[in-house]
Amino acid sequence: MQFTLATVAAFAAFITSATSHLIMADPPQWAVPGESQAPLDPSGSDFPCQNGRADPTASRSYTPGSQALLQIQGTAVHGGGSGQMLITYDFPPTANSVWRVMQSFEGDHPIKSKGNMQDQDSSITPSASYMLPPITWNVPSGLPAGRAVVAWSWFNRMGNREMYMKCATVQINGAKSSASNLNEDPGVKALPTLFRANSGNGCAVPENVDAIAFKNPGPNTKIVSGYTRTTIACDNSQPGSGSGASSGTGTGTGTGSPSAPSPTTTKYPSNGQQESGSGDGKELPSKPSPTASKPVTKQPVPKQPVPKQPVPKQPVTKQPATEAPSNGSGCPEGKVYCNSDNTWSMCGSGYIQKIGPIPSGMKCTNGQFSASKVRRAVRFSPEHMRRRH
Questions:
Q1: 283 phi and psi angles, rounded to 5 deg
Q2: Could you tell me which residues come within 8 angstroms of residue 322 by beta carbon, excluding any fewer than 6 positions away?
Q3: 303 CA to centre of own chain
């Protein structure tokens, strides 16, 4: 089969688009109507969660005071950056939902890299299914029991000014709350609100910011030394309230006021150690405070072997290709699915995610891409037809 230059170019652009962003593999993110790896729209029209389809079933269970795993999938890490682990008990969350910060990462997040993964290591092939090393984060001890939505937010260090926000349904195995609205529980309200930018809210992270110094980073913050951390002037996050409010900010007035200070920077030594404090009153423990009643538990590190169970016999295109199997092992790693709406999906970490439209000049059949065959009309001249008779 021969490919035209236009077909090869279209396929190259298609593959580049498919591997240009990141997926939250653990906890498994919701299926979204567009590209599962994409950031939020700059207008904020898909805030929060990229208008993802809220799965009513919890994919993970977390115990307050324990550690949990975050695993990101993809090679386009854009030089790392900064991010947060968020929670709300709204279901499904809306644009007006209040998101609380459980953990912040300031620098080299989700991984240290001078660009994308292939820039860091030439042996790595750009891929939407490439698994980054798992990241440990801390579940705050005061969260009440109930179904919740957790989100991973990310602000890339290099490239376009973007905000990523991937959401998942989880179960919190905490104490029963007397609050009719779990968002009003004291353990939840003690946490600060999220940092939002690059998503239609009038705030943008400037260029050349190596690491964001979040104004209200929450009870657990990981700071990477060797970077200049920058405070974003339009950071409109609010501190937690009541006992246990994070970062020592309390409930005093003046924080988050419209007249936000100009960006400030803090330089840390390149000693390879995580700092325990920032010098600005923020307490930044590297580990959660142990609780007497609940031991620290760890979830198993997700693995990438091809599942042993056979691939379903029925055509994948007859079922929603963006539906993630609840057991986390419903499809072979890296398998391509051809959808009936002229789009394609790929299996990553045991679940199927919609990648995007099939480019012009290509076709997808039984999980394989090929050039579309163009039927050419043949015309015979009247003289030729007379010779045939």
A1: -90, 125
A2: 31, 32, 36, 53, 345, 352, 353, 354
A3: 18
Mean pLDDT of 122-146: 88
What is d(CA 184, CA 328) in angstroms, rounded to the nearest whole number? 32
> In the structure encoding, which two tokens stand for residue 179, read together?
């609050």
Residues found in the chain: 389
Would you call 190 exposed, middle or buried from its count of C-beta atoms within 10 A (0-12, 13-18, 19+)?
buried
The owner of tokens 């550690």 is 67
Q: Which amino acid is at 281?
A: G
Which letter, b or e, does each residue of 241-261 get, where b requires 16 or more Cβ atoms within 10 Å of its Cβ?
Answer: eeeebbbebeeeeebbeeebe
- Are the beta carbons of 58 and 30 closer than 8 angstroms? no
DSSP state of 271: S
Task: State both tokens at 3.
Answer: 């490919």
List Cα–Cα distances, 274 to 281, 284, 357, in angstroms: 16, 9, 43
Spatial contact of 73 and 348, defined as CB atoms under 8 Å apart: yes
Joined tokens for residue 159: 């490239």
The closest of 98, 110, 102 to 68, measured between CA atoms, is 102
Tens-digit pLDDT profile for residues 87-117? 999 999 999 999 999 999 999 898 887 767 6
The b-or-e profile of 117-153 (16+ CB within 10 A means b, else e) is bbeeeeeeebbbbbbbebbebbbbbbbbebebbbbbb
* Residue 23, strand partner residues: 73
Distances (CA, A) of 155 to 51, 83, 207, 231, 314: 19, 6, 11, 13, 40
Question: Do the Cβ atoms of 220 and 138 come closer than 8 Å?
Answer: yes
Provide the whole-model pTM.
0.62
**Mean pLDDT, residues 345-365 taken together:** 68
The CA dihedral of 251, 256, 258, 260, to the nearest 10 degrees, is: 120
User: How far is residue 219's CA from residue 282's CA, in Å, rounded to a whole number?
Assistant: 9
pLDDT averaged over the chain?
Answer: 73
pLDDT above 90: residue 175? yes
Across the range 287-294, mean pLDDT stands at 38
Is the predicted pLDDT of residue 152 greater than 90, yes or no?
A: yes
In one-letter notation, the amino acid at residue 181 is N
Residues 6 or more apart whose CB falls under 8 angstroms from that of 312 comprise none
CA distance 59 to 78: 28
Measuring CA to CA, which residue among 311, 386, 389, 293 is closest to residue 350? 311
What one-character-per-residue DSSP string does 166-196 give?
A: EEEEEEE--BPPS-SSGGGSHHHHTSPBPP-
